[in-house]
Specification:
- The chain is an alpha+beta fold.
- The chain has 8 helices and 4 strands, in the order H-H-H-H-H-H-E-H-E-E-E-H.
- The protein has a 4-stranded mixed β-sheet with strand order 2-1-3-4.
- Strand 1, helix 7 (about 120-135) and strand 2 form a beta-alpha-beta unit.
- The termini are far apart.
- The model has no long low-confidence stretch (mean pLDDT about 90).
Length: about 180
């Protein structure tokens, strides 16, 4: 079976084109995030996976859970996904949409893992350095991993900047073995 990312791509691109042309990138971002959250709820996920539950009923569950928060376009989108048995793709569609939206807005996601909690000032300084390096605004997500010993590990797209003590020790160990 094709990978989820491959199956989700056309849906994410279609929603992005609709949102971009109508100037509603932010609104669709919220909608897709909400839909993705609903799709992973155990009860909803069970209905999605059950071939005996008709697709209009599954779509109706989404519409009911998010009553009053979905536009007519969003409801139609849910119905299309349900008819094509693609509702399980919603988390991936949402993630790909965010990537397209960030590209349009000149934003990059940076996943920063630090050995210790960072202060707001340290985070702002790091973000400024990353913005200078990437030429884009940086939206950083921070996590703490004491196993790094010291320093930070930054992942931006497929690029990794590993300034952790753990990485330096690993490199030293490899150099000493050769």
């Amino acid at each position: 079976m094709a990978e989820l990312s491959t199956l989700a791509r056309p849906y994410a691109e279609a929603v992005f084109r609709i949102a971009d042309s109508s100037g509603k990138l932010g609104d669709w971002s919220v909608t897709l995030t909400d839909l993705a959250h609903v799709s992973v709820d155990p009860t909803i996920a069970e209905a999605i996976d059950n071939p005996n539950v008709p697709s209009p009923k599954v779509a109706g569950l989404f519409i009911q859970v998010l009553a009053g928060r979905l536009t007519a376009e969003a409801e139609n989108f849910i119905r299309v996904l349900a008819e094509n048995r693609r509702l399980e793709l919603l988390p991936e569609i949402s993630a790909q949409y965010e990537g397209l939206k960030n590209d349009r807005e000149g934003i990059v996601d940076a996943h920063v893992t630090s050995a210790f909690p960072m202060t707001d000032a340290q985070l702002a300084e790091l973000a400024a350095q990353l913005e200078k390096k990437t030429g884009k605004r940086v939206k950083a997500q921070i996590s703490v991993d004491p196993e790094l010993i010291a320093g930070v590990r930054i992942v931006i797209g497929d690029k990794v900047i590993d300034g952790s003590a753990r990485a330096q020790l690993t490199a030293l160990e490899a150099a000493l073995k050769h």
